[in-house]
Amino acid sequence: MARLVFLRRTAAEVSLTGGEVYFDINGKNVGRLAPTDCFVDLPAGTYQIRMYKSHNYNTMVGFASVSVTVSEGESLMLRYTPPAVVSQPGNIQVSNYTPALADEVAQSTVSQIEADRTADRIKAENSRRGTRKAVKWIIIGSVATGVLIAISWIAYFAVFMSIL
To answer: Where are the alpha helices (DSSP H) in the chain?
Structure first.
């Protein structure tokens, strides 16, 4: 027997991209990704794998296909990455499977998602800080302009009154 292992979806991936990820083998839907690795045992041979993700209103997006040849006693790991934009295809990466490698890839994915989220939070905070600073200077400039105009009018009327 040969084995195909469909790498699990982490909670971070589910919260980021939502939906369900399905996988087909030779045109037949076999299952969907879960929080644990999905193992499919089959005879050695060549198989056409297709993976895709559910989207709004029961539509499917991110179709990706790959042909794999698996030998007797071999285990291959398939990792699906959904597209960033729904009109693009997804991606399937194939590698030899070991539990340690699967854990490493899953942890790496979680770390990357957390790093991206942290960078986005920092960027948003810097943007808010910049906006607050700009608003503060606009207000200070407006008040200063108003004070200068008032002082000019007072000086103008003082000069005008002293002439009379």
So the answer is: 11-17, 99-163
pLDDT band, very low/low/confident/very high, at 164 (cuts 50, 70, 90):
low
CA 123 to chain centre: 15
Residues 43 and 57: their CA atoms lie apart, in Å, by 37
Question: How many angstroms separate the Cα of 47 from the Cα of each of 34, 51, 148?
Answer: 21, 13, 79
In angstroms, the CA 38 to CA 50 distance is 15
Mean pLDDT rounded to a whole number for the chain = 90
Sign of CA dihedral 112, 86, 64, 29: positive
Specify whether the CB–CB gap between 92 and 51 falls below 8 A.
yes
